[in-house]
Please model this.
Amino acid sequence: MAFEATLEIVNQIAKITLTGELDATVAAQFRQKIEEAVAQQAKAIVLMVSGLDYMSSAGLRVLVFAKQKIGRGVDIFIVGAQEQITEPINQTGLQNSLNFLDTYDAAVIEK
Amino acid sequence: MPDTRIDTYPTHEYQGYKLRAGKPQPFGATLVPGGVNFSVFSSHATSCTLVLFEKHAPEPIAEIPFYNEFRIGNVYAMTVFDLPYENIEYGFRFDGPWNPQQGHWFDKTKILMDPYAKVIGGRDVWGQTPDWNNIYHHRARLIVDDYDWENDQPLEIPMEDMVIYEMHVRGFTRQPSSNVHNPGTFNGLREKIPYLKELGINCVELMPIYEFDEFENSRKHPDTGELLLNFWGYSTVGFFAPKAGFAATGKFGMQADELKTLIKELHANGIEVMLDVVFNHTAEGNEHGPYISFRGIDNKVYYILTPEGYYYNFSGTGNTLNCNNPIVRGIVLDCLRYWTAEYHIDGFRFDLASILGRDQNGAPLPNPPLLEQLAFDPILAKVKLIAEAWDAGGLYQVGSFPAYGRWAEWNGRYRDTVRRWLKGDDDLVIELAQRIMGSPDMYAARGPIASINFITCHDGFTLMDLFSYNNKNNWANGENNNDGNSDNDSWNCGWEGESSDPNVNSLRQRQIKNAVALLMVSQGVPMILMGDEAGRTQWGNNNTYCHDNELGWFDWTLVEKNADLVQFFQHIINFRRSHPVLRNRFHLSQRDYVGSGYPDISWHGTEAGQPDWSEAARALAFMLCGKHARGGKVHDDYIYVAMNSYWDALWFHPPQLPSGMKWHIAVNTMMTSGQDIYPVGSEPVLEVQDAIMLGNRSTVILVGR
Model:
């Protein structure tokens, strides 16, 4: 399935919805959305990934980039990840700096 | 804006690729603004071409020659702009003379891996049969050095406080009984950190994790038809790249991140990481071996060759890396610096390290520049350097390895002495005393911290097999039982192999406890072998290099089955770590220099103060004075160790303690589980203070406080 990344920012919460397969050929699109969110000084970045079927190392690299770009004050949430997405994140040790949620939980994200 | 710096614009174009003369340093492929800088050395080549592939593609997408003006000295350097660096693989073709008699093996039909490749594809998933028609097997890839180490740094645990656990990454958790999510990987090991922490070790020494080819010399067992792989990996393909097949994420090319995550978490749990590094030879073999890298780049520089152009074989594996050639020294140094800086590695154990001290003709050097350089390097200043101080060419330097105040050694004489003592051989007490004191006869000026004490390691029997087999049983290796060492100083305790006789089995358990107890009360640095704590067996196989199966894997059901052994190991390791008097940095003097009335160490026989140094003696005891711990700077308990390697029980009489102090029983290996060892602080008082009976072949440790 073709990759798509959309960004909406409401009350400084940047919600990026990812669908399809995130590999090296499209990672730049994802990265661009992160940069836009950072430019608008989002206080949280929420990745809606229930429609994401695959993430390659290039996708993981964007997560590393996001974490380093936004600094420690901003939380990154991963919402609705399937096992094929959480598995490589856990294996590369990124899970410690990301927050996983099954569904969008406003009480946690918009605290 | 870094992207518009005027020194980063292309000056050349080749088939649509934008190029510029590159930077000769650093070697390898480096991400630079706008592109990738490629730099590679060859002194005898006449030309070089960069070959680019899309990941996994069978054919190259581009072959870009290095223009004449891109060569500086003997270095070809070029920056290629706008490369999709996450999705490419690269190699080189070199043209030059083909004249093996003169040492030159140039062949421009071969695509060669960058010796500085930081990530290597091609064996991404362990054991997956390669496409043998692939024109480029081990494929260099680019690394993005953006790992978030948080606040991690190497632990710098003092050498005298180390307890090393030698292990094989895949073998540790590959057996399904490990119950980890990713068996046989860096991640699997990460999941088992709580086990290691509970065991009490504070350093893992990983058998080779540099990229190697498990299919090198792979073959079917002549009788069983089983596929035999290179499981151990003592045959390097790439010195700068972690073994992809050891990573659950190897299929994503994320092995570097996975390994770094493992190291970070081990550090967070107080455990150092030491790498077993193999610089003595490479995976290119002899005249009949494949072209991977060095052979086609500058054969004559990288290998030690006979005057006729053949490969010297000091390593026993086909070729010998030319370690004291200045170019090769450079790559070894760069490699170790890289692992220290980028992977936060705490130490290195050098396989067949004596080769590193041979000159370019193979003769041993009195002052080997490579060993000296490593010892004084600023980046390596705090890492541990440990030599396996011999090679397969007959050089044996245990006790005399050029140390420069830095190098420690695997003390093979410790292993041999303790094994022979435990089996009850004659004429050992004098030598045993030296080994227990940290081998001052061998390391007078270097201190006990030069001595890595071990009884078992990956080479040879496991501890359980040491007491279960008189003879090696290597038939599964398919070499007619001719491989592996035949001289093991082992003793089967009365029955060859697995036994149902409870007497045999309890003696074996006791001997294992005697062994580890002796190891943990010896001055120096103890090392234990993966699985010995759980009575791991290899069914008498003492050379399991080719077994990616039960012979090479840790069976985790043993941890439950031999729970009392595991517990004994935990307690005895903790005993060592709780008693600084066992961990001196400098040699004991056998004198009283703090005025305690006792020497720092005193020797005894069955009677206090009367050691029997005769040939027939099989009883020996010693006492460490707690007021002499750490050279008298620290106060510890007094410790008395009595060892009986005689086949009958003996009464021992410990020395009298200062008034007000009492002997307590910490260890008695003759006793059954629950009374064989007591946790530190809960040792019961010895009822009769001046006598204790030691059962046949047993060890007692008392603490005086």
User: Anything to note?
Assistant: The mean pLDDT of chain B is 96. The interface with chain A takes residues 55, 84, 86-87, 144, 146-148, 182, 187, 247-249, 252-254, 257-258, 260-261, 264-265 of chain B (CB under 8 Å).
